[in-house]
Design a protein that fits this description.
Layout (H helix, E strand, L loop, with lengths): L1 H18 L16 E8 L5 E6 L7 E6 L4 E7 L3 E8 L9 E6 L6 E5 L2
Parallel strand pairs: 1-7
Antiparallel strand pairs: 1-4, 2-3, 2-5, 5-6
């Protein structure tokens, strides 16, 4: 009888141990499309520049503002969408950009871009 109880207890312990185990390699720590990350833009030029962003909600570029030399701008973006960042000299058309970068992140890790001429 003791032997049967011991086997039963060991069997139940094994079932509980293996049944509660999660394989973290197969599971994401975030929900795609709901996770965000910060894009930090740093102006490494000697002039003030205008920043434009094309995102998943629009096919047009949206002006995000001016960025002074040595300054940073932080924009929150959504994981798994593609964005295009453009930098333009102040007063010029956004089609006349000197910097353009396409960004797609597959995880919510923050990203920093240095804007240079």
């Amino acid at each position: 009888m003791k032997k049967k109880m011991l086997i039963l207890v060991l069997l139940m312990g094994a079932i509980l141990f293996t049944g509660c185990h999660k394989n973290s390699d197969d599971e994401l720590d975030f929900i795609p499309g709901d996770a965000n990350y910060d894009l930090t833009l740093e102006n490494d030029t000697e002039e003030e520049i205008e920043i434009y962003l094309q995102g998943f909600t629009s096919e047009d570029f949206e002006r995000k503002g001016l960025l002074a030399p040595g300054e940073e701008m932080v924009i929150q973006l959504t994981v798994e969408y593609t964005y295009v960042v453009r930098a333009v000299n102040v007063g010029e058309s956004q089609e006349n950009y000197f910097f353009q970068e396409s960004i797609t992140r597959l995880s919510p890790a923050d990203l920093t871009l240095m804007i240079r001429n």
